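lol so apparently i was supposed to do this last week
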Amino acid sequence: MTKEKSDIGLIGLAVMGQNLALNIADHGFQISVYNRTTSKTETFVAANTDTPGGVVGTETLEEFVQSLAKPRKIIILVQAGGATDAVIEGLVPLLEQDDIVIDGGNAQWTDTIRREKELRANGLRFVGSGVSGGEEGARYGPSLMPGGAAEAWNEIKPIWLAMAAKVDALTGKQLEGAKPGRPITGGVPCAAHIGPDGAGHYVKMIHNGIEYGDMQMICEVYHLMHGLLGMEPKEIGQVFARWNEGLLDSYLIEITADILQQTDPDAGGPLVDVVLDAAGQKGTGKWTSINALDMGICAPTIAEAVFARCLSAIKEERVAASEVLTGSSGTFTENRDDFIGVLHDALYCSKICSYAQGFQLMREAQKEYNWTLDFGQIAQIWRGGCIIRAAFLQKITEAYGRDPSLANLLLDPYFNEAIQNAQSNWRRAVSAAVGHGIPTPTLSSSLAYYDGYRSARLPQNLLQGQRDYFGAHSYERTDRPRGEFFHLDWPDPDRPQSMV
Ligand code: 2AM
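anyway here it is w/ adenosine-2'-monophosphate bound
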């Protein structure tokens, strides 16, 4: 039976929008839907007449808005940027005080901050909700990262907790098995209020940056298994499947095992061997890296993952260069099974560094934007629904539980010990890669990050000397208090040092 007014509305019926709408309807909420092209709305509604909550199709924005219970809750799922602004612009004049507009797209957090401010000035509420998990996640339970006013969160909370992925309270593992009309009940939902205005979209962006790092480091390990150990995709896939039972247990390792064992349906043989090695990207890894540079936070693993995609994309140029440029030759003599263990440890250590960088970015951003982020909770809502879901995140939640103001994940006793136990293998893997000319930008830069972070003294004393020499940029001295700056007229034979 259709209720007079729907509990929530959704604009934008591309695949993500359709799946999120069905997920919400599966949980007993009546949802109104609107799409610019009405035929899409009609097809969608006609195909989904028997959901537990009910899907109501609307043809105009006015009809859509009038179909919603107040305060209205409206999810926008159109392309980020101009399309989102256009939809908001059309919507705002139709809304009333306290209505809530929710952007579920991949918006840049700075746009979300702006939109929240603009809507607040109009007496409306705006929530920027990161949604992770792709099409499958949207349909059966994504990880949800809403940012905005706390009162707005309280209004949408029952729907958000219902549609989110669920994890087992003890193990943190995602509960599987949701079906159309039969959602999962019980478990801990992967949704929580992240913070004000752009906090949710910021955290979603960091999630994606970490995802870039995770994916690239897995690819480098595959490259080493193939290039050094001569392993074929199927065997490599079996190793990943085994790793998925242990410390590295994660969605990305699981799908990697599947991908590597997939046969080409057309030509036979491993499908991965005929997939073109030129990566695409939509921009969230790039945004994370730009933001790291803007804030002056060291996040090389994530940036290298973006650059690795850029380098892969110039396929023709690389093919030409491969005819001209030489690398290293020589046979690899290490024991195969032993070296597989070495690669496992290198991957684990690099992953710790990559996440450490992501959390350092969030720590800095909260200062910049005046947010108070709960890092343990963020790790918790990433345990299910999203692409980086992993057993590992439970360890991060525990680390922030031990010390909510932890400066760096590397300093947590669990992760510190993990790296102590594995780092000699990590170094062996990177050495072998360097020695045999196999590029490992994320494994290598993670190690450089680790070694840099643990160094009480770095060579930037010399760098400060260089800056002062050519640009009179001044330097501080180790034997003087911080904040006292000196300049030396380096080329002058008498070398007078002055305080500046
Ligand atoms: P469409 O089906 O009418 O193209 C993803 O592209 C979704 O965003 C689609 O549902 C699309 O609607 C919608 N969309 C893109 N640009 C839009 C705009 N400027 N106004 C409204 N919807 C838009």
